[in-house]
Amino acid sequence: MEELEKLKLELKNLNFEYAKIKEIAPEKRGEFGRELNAKKVAILEKIKKAEEELLNEEVEAIDVTAPVGVNEKLPEVYSVFQGTKHPLMTELDKVTGIYQSMGFDVVESRQLDDEYHMFDSLNFAKEHPARDGYDTFRTEEGLIPPAHTSTMQHRVLKAYRDRLKEGGEIAVVVPGRVYRNEDVDATHEHTFYQCEGVYVSKTCTMGDMLGILREFFEKYYEQKLNIRTQPGYFPFTEPSLEFLIEKPKTLGGKKGDFLEMLGCGMIHPNVLKMAGIDPEEYHGFAWGGGIDRLVMLKYGLGDVRYFESGNLNFLKEF
Ligand code: DAH
Asked: Is ligand 1 within 6 A of the CB of residue 234?
């Protein structure tokens, strides 16, 4: 540092020397100027070097994997568990674990999708107002951060359809992060998680679907539950239902306190057809619901915004 200050002072003094050129005899001015310039170049060079050295000194190597800072004395003992899993991920594992125990495959959703998988392949008619109901974001290139995990239905049906010909069935769940252009409040987030389920076979019925869903919720909340359905509307199912559970007493619910947990229904014949599955021969059902809501009920959380907040006090509670 001192070295650099000295050089800068030298440079400043040199600049004063230039002013003396007027006092020099004209025939000697050329040589005088050349000498000064040479000195200046030399000083500038030294300054550059000194600055580079300084930079190297100040940037010290850090090991981001080290449990303590490089300049700290290593403590006698230190915990290797510096963080915890995000509660949503812990719960998502439980969710997929339950479905896996029932024989479902788990497939991951995408962070960016397209118009075809978001709408067309799900039997949304072109220009139909139902498209607006999903408050989709769009990238400048026209891609869509998916507004629901149903974007994976078409892909799953195509990827697994050979199982049907082999006499088997399609049984897949798709957890994923979804995005909606909504005003954020205690019950709405622009970013949240859903889990989709897709089942297709020769003989399946809506009764099978309700059985699977009941089983799932009872396992997740570890108790018997009262369930209810009511009519819904989704272009990709016919008929479409909303699936509700009665809020358990243990979780602060009263009798008749029903909560809508997901949308579901029998897969629309057009959706099967578009994926190359003959709706005359096979039937399917599908469902999709929010993970955040599921977890909020389990732990009595009143505000969905905690999940994406990065608030350590909140995260440390899990
Ligand atoms: N994708 C729907 C939503 O986000 C939920 C849904 C409804 C998924 C019916 C389905 C279904 O698979 O069959 O609101």
From this structure: yes
Q: How far apart are CA 289 and CA 255, in angstroms?
A: 23
Is pLDDT at 8 greater than 70 in this prediction? yes
Residue 57 has pLDDT above 80, yes or no: no
CA of 124 to the centre of ligand 1 (A): 13
Q: What global pTM score does this model have?
A: 0.77
How much is the pLDDT for 15?
83
Nearest CA to ligand 1 atom 9: 264
290 lines ligand 1 (CB under 6 A): no
Helix (H) or strand (E) holding 286: strand 283-290
C-alpha 223/C-alpha 130 separation (Å) is: 36
86: exposed, middle or buried (C-beta count within 10 Å: 0-12, 13-18, 19+)? middle
SS3 314: helix
